[in-house]
Design brief:
The protein contains 9 helices and 17 strands. With 389 residues, the chain is an alpha+beta fold. It folds into 2 domains: 256 residues, 3-Layer(aba) Sandwich (Aminopeptidase), CATH 3.40.630; 120 residues, Alpha-Beta Plaits (2-Layer Sandwich), CATH 3.30.70.360. The two termini are 14 Å apart.
């Protein structure tokens, strides 16, 4: 079915995207100068209202807010959510992070691809449906969410208030269909020694050297993880040591050492199983040395994500993308984590589809404008098809 009786307003899309990039929505948890989402959420809420959606500004804190628009359906079909985060990473090293300059079909600026192009596409797709005058069978929810780049306050709060039969998370995928991504667990490992003057070797216990033993075991585990049968879409799991601190003076045996590490998880892996593998290293070291003391504590766990390839939303979006692009989109997995895992955990089957671009989290970020237009058309057609069911 080809729903050619809607039209994407390219001028509206382009201007909206330029406006969004010009708004500083740097996450305050990542940068001291971070503005948060209050201004951008207010802007998106106004646009949602102006194009005829039922618009809701959802305040979360003094720096964070969601913007949610609803297009009510006839009540005869399935509901669909489009989801994109409004926050960005920092702008260090960017000469003109909010310029929204357009050159050679590309729009430049922080968040252009991650994910303000997607936000503009969602708004343009909703406008196209409104302008067409057609009524969908089910409700369409358009969600701009906060804080995905840090702790996902926005989507965690969103799922408490809004439900849908499926969701399209418009993270940048270069117009490929991402059906899985890895999760992550952050751990704190501490080793404990005994402080003593450097001359008192019989009394001192070196907590840093003990952490070195653990790092040796971690290195072996990392190499073993790489050899495990990879997940078909996201590859093998991985682990890396991130931050290490210890010691007080050069002539003092260090009594304490602290390590933070990140373990990237694949679909099917659990917090308990991953923690057991790390604890086994510590247990082995303690058995071989009565003076070895250490603790392991996970302090953030974000689950991996996967959707069945035969799910209705996958079939719908794949068909719509094939018609728009003239070829079937590649099915892939994302190496990064997204809010799709939160939506899926809340019982909302989700997939990822977003625009083409480059420079995520780097000094030059851009999004391909034609791909944003294509994304808007795919979103609109997918809503018509899915919400009719």
């Amino acid at each position: 079915m080809n729903h050619s009786h809607f039209t994407i307003d390219v001028d509206f899309l382009t201007q909206t995207l330029r406006d969004l990039v010009r708004i500083n929505s740097t996450n305050p948890s990542l940068s001291q100068e971070g503005a948060g989402e209050l201004e951008i959420a207010a802007y998106i809420t106004r646009v949602m209202g102006a194009i005829g959606l039922e618009a809701h500004y959802q305040a979360l804190s003094d720096k964070h807010a969601n913007a949610v628009g609803i297009r009510r359906g006839a009540g005869s079909g399935r509901s669909l959510m489009w989801n994109a985060h409004m926050d960005t990473v920092g702008v260090v090293g960017m000469p003109a992070p909010f310029s929204a300059e357009i050159r050679d079909g590309r729009l430049y600026g922080r968040g252009a691809q991650d994910m303000k192009g997607s936000l503009a596409a969602m708004l343009a797709a909703a406008k196209a449906l409104q302008d067409s005058g057609m009524t969908l069978g089910g409700d369409l929810i358009v969600a701009g969410v906060a804080d995905e780049e840090y702790s996902s306050l926005g989507s965690c709060e969103l799922v408490k208030h809004y439900r849908a039969d499926a969701a399209i998370v418009t993270e940048p995928t270069d117009l490929q269909l991402a059906l899985a991504h890895r999760g992550f667990i952050l751990y704190e490992v501490e080793t404990f020694g005994r402080a003593a003057h450097g001359s008192r070797y019989k009394e001192g216990i070196d907590a840093i050297l003990h952490m070195g033993r653990f790092l040796g075991g971690l290195d072996q585990l990392e190499q073993e993880l790489r050899q495990r049968p990879p997940h078909a879409l996201v590859g093998p799991p991985s682990i890396h040591a991130s931050i290490i601190q210890g010691g007080s003076e050069v002539s003092i045996y260090p009594a304490h050492c602290r390590l933070e590490l990140e373990r990237r998880t694949c679909p099917g892996e659990s917090l308990d199983k991953v923690s057991e593998e790390l604890q086994a290293i510590l247990n082995s070291l303690a058995q071989s040395d009565a003076n070895f003391r250490a603790t392991l504590k996970p302090y953030m766990d974000r689950p991996p994500f996967e959707i069945e390839p035969g799910a209705a939303i996958v079939q719908t979006v794949e068909a719509a993308a094939t018609r728009r692009l003239g070829h079937a989109p590649q099915r892939t997995g994302a190496s990064f984590w997204t809010d799709a895992a939160i939506l899926a955990d809340a019982g909302i089957p989700s997939l990822l589809l977003g625009p083409i671009g480059s420079g995520l989290h780097s000094a030059e970020e851009w999004v391909d404008l034609q791909s944003v237009v294509d994304l808007a058309a795919i979103l609109a057609e997918s809503a018509i098809e899915f919400c009719a069911g």
